[in-house]
Design a protein that fits this description.
Layout: H1 2-66, E1 75-81, H2 86-100, E2 106-112, H3 118-131, E3 136-140, H4 142-151, E4 159-162, E5 183-187, H5 192-202, E6 208-214, H6 218-232, E7 237-243, H7 249-257, E8 262-264, H8 269-273, H9 275-285, E9 289-290, H10 294-298, E10 303-306, H11 309-324, E11 335-336, E12 341-345, H12 346-351, E13 364-366
Parallel strand pairs: 1-2, 1-3, 3-4, 4-5, 5-11, 6-7, 6-8, 8-9, 12-13
Antiparallel strand pairs: 10-12
Helix pairs in contact: 2-11, 3-4, 7-9
């Protein structure tokens, strides 16, 4: 009986040991399974991270593409040109040249304001380009830039302006160094000290300079104030006549020409667009008209200290390309061209019986466009 009991106990103990080994074996399998699950989880986390990175990259590409990265997307680029006259046409030529050399794939939509309704035309063009979600708008001349700036407010469409003499006064940038919004570009600020040097060399006895300007064009008002400061130091009187519309120019030009020794043009768009009217009035009075760039001299002005508007356009275009490739327009400083060269119309010089001043014998000479 005692031996039977011992056998039973031995069998029970043996079974318990077998169960324990089985349990240990089960724990090892479970541990292996858990390890495998953990590894899968880690891999899944890596995959999620990779997926997130890919999404971030895709988002960056999309954002860059929206700002014009050359990732195969055809960019929609608008150009709003206030009116068509040689200076502004040259700006467009420069912008177009820069874009052609950029390697970007784009569609270029150029819109030009009509002489009589340029302000309202440009506003319509800007609003249309915003509605169509263009990738960028180039705006040539101050009035075009101001409406493009207003139309793009609250959007991510950058505006790159060209030939805006005083963008701060026009209230489209906070400062020349820090624009503050997606609006920057180039300024065609004039060297008025050099211009008055030229006028005094041509007319040593000049006592008064006439200015015709558009009262609503901020850059003209800014340039007028600068010219007054320059001329005050030289005891030259500046007589200014403001106009609002093209129809005001004939009478205003005739009256002004009768009161001054010469007329000086800024980059005022309405005045430049009606240059022939101003020249006719000056010719009747027997006085010269000084321009602000070479195209005006080719069209009949006596002389100018001229910047290169094609080059200004190229600088503008290249700034736009930088923004399309990811640069921040809001921190991109407004650029200017400092180099300005004298140019003289030899035919006008002869017709006014003025000798070429010795200081300008090396100046570029042109003749009047026929």
């Amino acid at each position: 009986m005692k031996k039977s009991i011992i056998k039973v106990l031995a069998l029970i103990l043996c079974a318990a040991m077998i169960f324990a080994f089985a349990a240990c074996g089960g724990k090892d399998d479970t541990s292996a399974t858990d390890s495998s699950t953990e590894e899968t989880t880690v891999s899944s986390a890596d995959a999620t991270k990779d997926s997130s990175d890919e999404a971030t990259t895709a988002s960056s590409v999309e954002k860059t593409s929206a700002n014009g990265a050359s990732d195969g997307k055809t960019l929609k680029i608008g150009v709003i040109q206030y009116v068509s006259h040689p200076s502004l046409d040259n700006c467009y030529t420069g912008i177009e040249t820069a874009l052609k050399e950029s390697g970007l794939k784009y569609e270029l939509d150029r819109q030009i304001g009509s002489d009589a309704a340029a302000d309202s035309d440009c506003k319509t063009y800007a609003e249309s380009m915003v509605a169509k979600k263009y990738d960028m708008i180039f705006a040539i001349a101050t009035p075009a830039a101001t409406v493009a700036y207003a139309a793009t407010e609250g959007t991510d469409i950058p505006v790159i302006f060209c030939a805006v003499s005083d963008p701060v006064a026009a209230k489209i940038v906070d400062s020349m160094e820090n624009p503050g919004s997606l609006c920057t570009g180039t300024s065609d600020v004039l060297n008025l000290d050099a211009q008055v040097d030229l006028i005094q060399s041509m007319q040593p006895d000049v006592k008064s300079i006439g200015i015709l300007y558009t009262t609503s064009e901020a850059n003209s008002i800014s340039q007028l104030n600068t010219l007054k400061e320059v001329c005050k130091k030289r005891n030259i009187e500046v007589k200014a006549t403001g106009i609002q519309n093209d129809s005001d120019i004939p009478a205003a030009a005739a009256a002004l020409a009768s009161e001054v020794d010469c007329i000086n043009n800024f980059t005022d768009n309405k005045v430049v667009n009606n240059l022939s009217v101003v020249l006719n009035a000056a010719n009747e009075a027997g006085i010269p008209v000084y321009g602000s760039e070479v195209e005006q001299v080719k069209n009949g002005c006596l002389a100018a200290v001229s910047i290169d508007y094609v080059e200004l356009g190229k600088v503008t275009g290249n700034m736009g390309i930088e923004v399309l490739n990811g640069a921040d327009a809001s921190t991109m400083a407004v650029q200017t061209i400092s180099k300005a060269d004298p140019v003289v119309n030899s035919e006008v010089l002869a017709s006014l019986n003025i000798e070429m001043p010795k200081a300008y014998t090396e100046a570029e000479t042109v003749v009047t466009n026929k």
